[in-house]
Every structure is written in C-alpha cells, then in structure tokens.
Amino acid sequence: MSTSPSKPLPPYLAPTVTPTTLQPSSPRAHRTIRRLQSAQTLSSNPPNANTPSLISQQRQQQQQRHISGFHRDPLPAQNLPISTSQPHHRSRSNSDAAVMSVSNSGPAPRRNAVAKKIVAPPISAKHQLEALIRDGPPKGDLAEGLRDLRYYVLSDGVEADNDGMSSLRIYIWLILLNAPPLATDHYLDLIHRGPSPAYAKIRNDTFRTLATDPLFKRRVSEASLIRLLNAIAWRLHDAKTERSTESGKTTNTATEEGSPELHTVSPIRKQPGPPTTTTDGSEAGATEPGIYVQGMNVLCAPFLYAARSEAEAFIAFYRFLTRECPGYVRGAMDGVHKGLALVDKCLSIVDYKLSDYLHSKGMHAELYAFPSVLTLCACTPPLPEVLQLWDFLFAHGAHLNILCIVAQLVMIRDTILSSPRYINMHTLVQEET
User: Fold this and answer.
1) Is the pLDDT assigned to residue 260 strictly greater than 50?
2) pTM of the model
C-alpha cells in the first residue's frame, strides 16, 4: 500500500531519521530518501507564503557551506563528528599560525628598536673629553671638572695613534698644568731678542736630544729645540732679574711662580754658596735658579712632540718648570738629588731584599736613577709610552715619578739579582722596559 500525500501518517508510523540514513551507500538511494523527506515535509506542513521553497532552502545551505569553507578546514561531510554538546577545540587556530609564521611583521620592529636604544653603546671617552675641553665643566664647577678629567686620564687614557699623537693631549696638559693663555706675539718677541746668555750651552745639547728616537727626529727639528730653549732661557733670565731688583722687599704672598723663598733659598742649604758649574757648563748659584741646566733639553722634547705649535709647547714647558719642579732648574739641582734619595728610601720599603742587594754592590740611586729622575723618565724609550706616563704624572702629580722608577726596578728584580756585580743599571732598565 502506498502512502497518500493528502492523508498524513500517524506519528507512531512516521519513519525515524537516524544519523545512518544521512550516509547513503549510493547516489540513487540518496535521491529516493530526499523525495520521501520532501513528501513528508509537504504533507505535515502545508505551504505558506512566508516559507521558502525547497530549492531556496537548498541554495541557502549551499551558500552557508561555501561561506563556512573559508573559516573551517575543508573536511568531508561524512568525517565531521555529529556533536552539539561541546564545541570542537584545536591546539591553535589558523590566525595564530599565520601570526607565528610572519616573525618580522606587526609590532616586532618596534620592540627591536626599543631594545637597540637600551643596549646602545655609551659615548666614548674621547667624545667626553672633547666635550669637557670644548664646553668646560658642567655648571661651571671647576673642581668637579678637574676630577672628571683626572679620572678619564687614569681609567681610559688619552686616545692616540701608534706614534703617540693625539689632538687632545696638549690641551689636557695645559689644563692640568693650569697654564694661562699666551699670545703668539709674546713668544715671537722672545725669539727676536736673539741669543740668550745660555745660547752656547743650548747648542751643545740640542743635537743629542733623543738622538736615537726616530719618531722624535721625524717630527721635531733641532731648530725648534733651540728656539724654544732660548726663549725659556730669556724668560727665566727676566724673572731672575726681577727677583734681584726686589730682593730688599719681604713678602709671604705666593705668586704664580711659587713663593719667593722657594726661588731664593734652598730648603737644604740656607746659606748662599759660591757659584757652581753644572754638568752642561752653565754657571749659577747653588741656591738660585739657573736659566739653563742639564736635562732641560730632554724635558723639553715631549712638549714639542705633543704640541701643535711652539707657542703651546713654550707655555706648557715654562709652567712645568716653575710650578711642578722648580728645584730642577737650580744650579745645584737640589730637587733632583732629593728625588734620588727618595728612590733609595722607597725601594727599601717596597723591596728590602732588592734594595739591600744594590747597596751591597755599591749601587745607589744616584748612580743608576739619575737620568730617570732628572727627565721624568723621558730618557727611557719608547716615546709614546713616555707621553702616556706624563698624562698620569700631570694629572696626579709629578712626584709620583719616584714611585714609577721604583716600580721599574721591582719589575726587573729577578734580572738584577742574577746580574754580575758591575752593571750599568740605566742601560738594564732601558732594555727591560
């Protein structure tokens, strides 16, 4: 008996649709089931004007499947699980995978830029020194500026090339020596005065100044040495003349060149002595400053090598002689002999065994350390290292040269202790360092 479309079946006789009926085994069976379902729908629900037709419903379902295909994985319909209780969860969505695949897109460059700003290298010591020399100390605090300058010299050093040349070194020396500005015309006036009273002695020494150093010979000429030392001799001669004219005046006010007592009376010998002849032949009183003494030619050499002009070297060298080591330019060179006594004393404290060994061989500091004390180690090559040492000495005090000489002896103590009795200590120090 066939089912009439006009007479609906009782509910208990209606065919039950199970999930298995949605999976036909062939296209023909699928079409037969769809016709039965359509007849069932039409018989149970009469047509309504607001109800879409079967074809419209099929088109809507196709459009929904087409749209959902862009958002879901294109899996076959028979493989989709039929479950409405819990939604399907995946380990990650397609949007997550797309973001992970593009590693350099989005906010990543911004994070990298921030990281670069954080790890950016600090300003170099050279740029900090340039700013300090060009602009002066921050907030005009001179004491703080000098402390910063000394710290840079000690921690980072003055940047220079392999030859020891630096565009900042001479300015750092002028600041540390507190040298006032000098007009070039003033230096030219001293040169135009002609030969000084010590000119012959100067010419006797200049040709052998650092004669074995090729760097110095290539940059500094003998004529520059002669001009600078002659100008220094005139300047010291004028200062000596002024002191002699004012010898009757008594004052305790310290001047730019030091106290008057420091220049006229030696701390060791209170009584004026007879005129003495220094090693280079210039005559000067034992307690009076001379206009040229032994070692001034070697002391002058680093200033000319580091300076950018003779006028800069002149004011720096003059300030150094009159402020840092005024005892070195006296006729008897009291400051040098005091320094030699300090070398013996410091060595006995630092390394008593080495000091006792040298004294047992008759080797006192006056025999082996005289050139190093007299020239602040400028006689010990190489010259670029001498310039670095002078950076330190000008920043923290020229008196530390004594400790530097003791340090050289301690560094070569094993060689000294194993050496024969008669030895040229000065040559040994130069070879080992």
Assistant:
1) no
2) 0.64
